[in-house]
Structure formats: structure tokens, C-alpha cells
Amino acid sequence: MKKVVCSVFAAALALAASNASAEELWNPHLRGTDEGLAAGALPPEGVYFINDTYFGAWKSFDGSGNQTGSKLDVMIDIPILLWNPGVKVLGADYAVAIAQPVDYTSVYSNSTAATGNGHFGTFNTVVIPGMLSWALPYDLHVKTQLAVYVDDPSSSPAHPAPAGGAGAGNSFWTLEPGLGVSWLHEGWDLSASLHYDYNFKDNTTNYQSGDQIAAEYTATKDIGKWTAGAGFYQENQLERDTINGVSKAGTTRLTYGVGPIVGYNFGPVDLTATYNYNITTHNDFGGDILNVRLIAPLY
Q1: Does residue 291 lie within any of the structural domains?
Q2: Which residue of 130, 211, 248, 281 sits 20 to 30 Å from the alpha carbon of 2, by its own alpha carbon?
């Protein structure tokens, strides 16, 4: 089967750097999750199952990039269904998608603590009601999309997790427009995936997370059934969080990472692994990341 190429979304990533102000728990976009994909393209007509399994063992960093002593283990599984019905809209291929991420978090009060408060839960359901992908001259592809993060997690600041564990999601809605651009030529994939997150106010706590931008960049080459290359991600918060309309210092987060990408096409199924080395993190939890992605056509 032709390799499936699509920029998918995924949810959530790191806890805020200070659990003392735990109104804000998760970044809406999962950093690095689009690495290894052709961000501007969609797969051929059909229904596809995509699953990202994501691991991190992170430490907390302050606004200067120094460790604060806390640490976090995280595992996130993101099953996604994507449907390309074969419809054209404004000359573009059209598709829709939905995901229901499940996450495990364990927060440790300091880097030497033997046990944390491990907790499983479901993150906000993520719905993409529309993706539009245009195939342009010179092997260029451009895609736009809108993701909606529904306020329905199993636990959050408004509905605390048991035993003091981290909430599994955010108790507010998020709108996330996205843009993907790809150059796909003779097995090369040079892609950029951009996402802008607008977070609505948490009506229970009156806390509102600042707008963020997340981006992933991919440079890979197909060699027979193998794919190899590198990826880079960035995540930047553009404005401070607010509570009751008052901005909070130390809440503008940023993080950067880079690492290798390796994939194999088994025929009907593609399997890709990305590893990101953490370059720097400010006002957030951060560290190295392993993500394993499976893409399979259902018909």
C-alpha cells in the first residue's frame, strides 16, 4: 500500500511547572507528535486508524531553564480515526478525524522520590470537523484544519483526580487551527506543521491559559521500505495565563527538542518511531520523548 501521509493532531503534553497553581495542567498540542508525517497531505480515500504511543520521564524547569526538583512520568496513548470520503471542497481533498487520548501521569515531589501519585484517565476528546489539502505544482502540498478540544476529561482542576494525582485533562475548551506544508519528491518529505491554540476560560476556577503556538518540522527520505531522517519541535506560549483577568508571572512556557526518525512500511501498515532530545524547557516539565506511531487502513 502507498505510504499513508497525513498530519494528525494529538492532545496534551506537560503539566505546568508549579502544581501549586494547578489550574492549568496540560498544553493542548502534544509536542513532537506530527514529526515524520507529511504535514500538508492527506491519505487516499478511505478510513484509517492511527495510534500514537508516547513516553516521557521529565523534570520541572523554571523560567530560566533550571531544574526545580520535581519530576513527572507520562505515558499517553492516542487512538485516532481519520476518514477521507473522496470529496473535494474548494479544489482540496477533504477529511475529518476524531481522537480520544488516554494518559497516565505520576508526579514526584522531588527528583529522588521513590514513588509518585500515578493516575490513569481520559483526556479531552479531540474532534477535527474539517481538513482541506491542496496538491500544488512542484510536488508541494498545503493543508489547513481546525481541531476542537472538548471539555470532557475524566479528571481536571474542576473534577480532581483521586489521591492527589494529576488531572487527566483540561476543564476548558480549546480551538486549534492548523497549517501544514510539505514538499514530497522522489521519497523525500520536507514538512512543517503549525498549530495555534486558543484556550477558553475555565468557568470553575476563572483561570485562562495563554495562547500558544506549536510546530513540528520533518526531513526524511524513503529508502525501499525504510524511512529515515530527523525532526524538530518547538512550543511557545505567547502570553501569560490569567486568573480573574489578572496575568500570572512565570506562566509563559517554551520548549524545544530534536531527534531521529525511523520508519518501516510493512505493506498495509506503517510503523514509525521518533525520539526527541530535549534542548531546553522553561516554566514547564520537559525531557526526552519516545513516540511510536502505527498507521493502518481500515478500508
Answers
A1: yes
A2: 130
So what's the pLDDT on residue 28? 86
The pLDDT tens digits of the residues spanning 5-56 come to: 556 665 545 454 444 344 466 788 888 999 999 999 999 999 999 999 999 9
What is the spatial distance between Cα 51 and Cα 276, in angstroms, rounded to a whole number? 18
What secondary structure, in 3-state letters, does 20-55 show? HHCCCCCCCECCCCCCCCCCCCCCCCEEEEEEEEEE
Classified as helix, coil or strand, 218 is strand
User: Whats the size of the chain, residue-wise?
Assistant: 299
- Pairing between β-strand 174-185 and β-strand 188-199 as defined by DSSP bridges: antiparallel
What's the grid cell of residue 25? 495542567
pLDDT tens readout for residues 102-152: 998 888 776 656 566 778 889 999 999 999 999 999 999 999 999 999 998
On the 0-12 / 13-18 / 19+ scale of CB atoms within 10 A, 266 is: exposed
Q: Measure the CA–CA gap between 49 and 8, rounded to whole angstroms.
A: 11
- Using CA atoms, how far apart are residues 284 and 296, in angstroms rounded to an integer? 34
The three three-digit cell numbers of residue 115, written as one number:
514513588
CATH number of the domain enclosing 151? 2.40.160.40
Residue 8 lies in a domain: no
Can you say how many angstroms the Cα of residue 219 is from the centroid of all Cα atoms in its chain? Answer: 18
- C-alpha grid cell, residue 97: 478525524
Boundaries of domain holding 109: 19-297
Cell 511557545 maps to which residue?
A: 236
d(CA 192, CA 16): 26
**CB-CB neighbours of 2 under 10 Å:** 9
Angle 126-132-148 from CA coordinates, rounded to 5°:
20
